[in-house]
Amino acid sequence: MIAPTQAPMVTTPWTITRIEKETEDTFTLDLKASEVEASPYRFEPGQFNMLYVFGVGEAPISISGDPAKPKRLRHTTRIVGTVTRAMGALRKGESIGIRGPYGSSWPLEQAKGKDVIIVSGGIGLAPLRPALHKLLAHRQQYRRIILLYGARTPEDILYNKHLEKWRARFDVEVYITVDRATRNWRGNVGVVTPLVKRAPFHRDNAIAMICGPEIMMRYAVQELRTRGLQAEDIYVSIERNMKCAIGHCGHCQYGPAFTCKDGPVFRYDKIEHLFNLVEI
Amino acid sequence: MRNNSGGVIQRADIGQLLSVLTEKGYITIGPTLRDNTIVYDEIESVQDLPIGWTDIQAPGSYRLIKRDDEALFAYNTAPQSWKRYLNPPRIRLWKAQRTEGGGFTVDPEDYAPSKYAFIGVRACELKAILIQDKVFLGGYKDPCYQSRREGAFIVAVNCTQANETCFCASMNSGPKAESDYDLALTEIIDEQRHEFVVECGSERGEEILKELQHRPVEAEDSQRVDERIQETISQMGRSMDTHRLQSLLASQPNHPRWEEVAERCLSCANCTMACPTCFCSTVEDVTDLTGDHAERWRQWDSCFTMDFTYISGGHVRSSVMSRYRQWMTHKLSTWHDQFGVSGCVGCGRCITWCPVGIDITEEVAAFQNSHSQKTTNSVEK
Ligand SMILES: Cc1cc2nc3c(=O)[nH]c(=O)nc-3n(C[C@H](O)[C@H](O)[C@H](O)COP(=O)(O)OP(=O)(O)OC[C@H]3O[C@@H](n4cnc5c(N)ncnc54)[C@H](O)[C@@H]3O)c2cc1C
Ligand code: SF4
Ligand code: SF4
Ligand code: FES
């Protein structure tokens, strides 16, 4: 956590120790604190940091690493514009500014003793990976664990190594689908939502966590509701423009909520009245 | 707790207030006359005040005219509020310098504590400062705001007349400052007198008053103050019905009125810049020619700008309708959820400084009316 004496908008340089190219436009950075920190960096799955590229700007990026390994801070970024492109051009040994962690987290406490359904699309798997790490580290505390993941093409699938490992386990059910298949693809084709229809969870004792494009989240929620899941058992992660992450700049407002501090993870019943409105 | 100590200062002696505050190390900021408007700026003496001037405000219009007396504070609200001093339009947050091997160091801006004395803070403006306190000091503390706010000495001025655009009375934020000031003045002018009834709101205020030439407050003085305040309330040109407004607006995102007002709204952001409670900002990163030195700046922003909600999928609020809806819903509804108060203090600036004269009280009335019509209709059925 940020020491209360430090000015909240001031970034701290961390050093890039490893870069992994995930897909054509997506990469993962491993970082270590440049100066020896007094205490290890702690975060909850679902939280994010503001990442600063020298001279270019800041972007909110979820923490995608294992919360049990607080010495190595991990982020997965997709290149979509100015800051993320500059971030993608950084090299090992160079520095990146970090401030955080910010925001709410996935309901891993509430999920204890329940079936857990994770629905993710594209880069939306990044903020859910820490949740999966934690769920699997405490596997016996949960009932079924189901991961549904959709990517554009087989080449766009993130975290292949982890997905393979999880797939090989008997205590996790992993379903992957792609919008467009390539020649060697033998899996599902189509959007992720039909997978929700078939997912084997118990509707009275399950919790769902969703992150992906808004349109995908809308369909996923609809499908889960049809399957009988209550609104208060569904959690979604919302994306908004963020300039400060500390509730001062106003950019991330989503109805009454500041997405940076009340979100990005929201319990669905709290935002149901906003979720299907456009331009909120 | 209301502090009842006070005194009455004659017009001839009021200048001492400025000199005593200056002696104590305060930078005195007060109303001055510039470019046909009132501008809060550094003042040295009473001569810098807009002596004998008053403002005439109406939707989309602002004018200063001369009065037939020498009143010091006979105007209502200046175009710019005190937020310009507490939360400046543009500040540097930090500087960074590249080091060998791809690293960099960060040098946070040092905001030396400022000692401002604000002279002439209206009740509505004082309430707006308390609202911005919640934004900038309620959670994460903004060090710049804090450095300016904590030392600030507040001399409130109670309004003894109101403009057509004023509606603070209906927002419970004026026209009399009730607390959170150091000194509050009420200017009394009639055939026999030109004097200031002073109330102390803090120990600091009492200390200052002790050093000023004054006489005790008599019952008639308090009575004169009350009369002026009552008169001001009766002059107020507008009012806002806030009953159930929070839930009413929250429940009407698709009301046709949003489209109607959007047809007039130019999305110019004037209202948000002039509003004393609006707090939104953006950041800007700059580098020098070598690229080795970078700085991060923060500046005021507005929810009326297109880029405000940009994310990689596009602009969330691309229509003017959605941006006007955000502004008004935030001010009057979601602000309550966020900070436990309304985001509007009824100062009327957004009405005056709207180029097409959109009037927030009129918009609220439209929502309240269509709601009460609906309820009556359904009762009839
Ligand atoms: C909580 C949260 C978690 C996230 N997690 C991840 C993650 O784990 N991985 C990931 O890849 N992405 C994540 N994102 C999305 C990511 O933050 C954005 O993709 C990123 O900010 C894009 O930055 P950019 O500069 O590359 O893109 P751009 O599209 O160039 O710029 C986006 C930013 O620049 C500003 N901007 C753009 N154009 C203009 C203009 N003309 N004038 C002024 N300003 C402009 C926008 O206001 C915006 O702030 C997350 C977002 C949020 C809110
Ligand atoms: S009305 Fe708009 S500019 Fe003002 S505080 Fe709200 S979001 Fe920010
Ligand atoms: S919304 Fe308008 S009337 Fe209300 S405080 Fe802001 S500028 Fe003043
Ligand atoms: S990102 Fe600035 S208020 Fe949330």
Automatic annotation (TrEMBL), chain A:
Q: Which Gene3D superfamilies match?
A: Nucleotide-binding domain of ferredoxin-NADP reductase (FNR) module (3.40.50.80), Translation factors (2.40.30.10)
Protein name, please?
FAD/NAD(P)-binding protein
Instruction: State where [2Fe-2S] cluster binds.
Output: 244, 249, 252, 260
| Gene Ontology molecular function | 2 iron, 2 sulfur cluster binding; flavin adenine dinucleotide binding; metal ion binding; oxidoreductase activity
Biological process according to GO = pyrimidine nucleotide biosynthetic process
Q: Which PROSITE patterns match?
A: FAD_FR
FAD-binding FR-type domain sequence ranges: 9-108
Question: Could you give the cofactor binding note from the entry?
Answer: Binds 1 [2Fe-2S] cluster per subunit.
**Organism taxonomic ancestry:** Bacteria, Pseudomonadati, Verrucomicrobiota, Opitutia, Puniceicoccales
Automatic annotation (TrEMBL), chain B:
Descriptive protein name = 4Fe-4S dicluster domain-containing protein
Q: What's in the keyword line of the UniProt record?
A: Iron, Iron-sulfur, Metal-binding
Cited PANTHER family: ANAEROBIC SULFITE REDUCTASE SUBUNIT A (PTHR40447:SF1)
Entry GO MF terms: iron-sulfur cluster binding; metal ion binding
Presence of keyword RNA-binding: no
Asked if Coiled coil is a keyword of the record, the answer is no
- Listed Gene3D superfamilies: Alpha-helical ferredoxin
InterPro entries listed in its UniProt record: 4Fe4S_Fe-S-bd, 4Fe4S_Fe_S_CS, Helical_ferredxn
In this chain the 4Fe-4S ferredoxin-type domain maps to: 254-286, 335-363
Q: What is an example of a Pfam family matching this protein?
A: Fer4_22
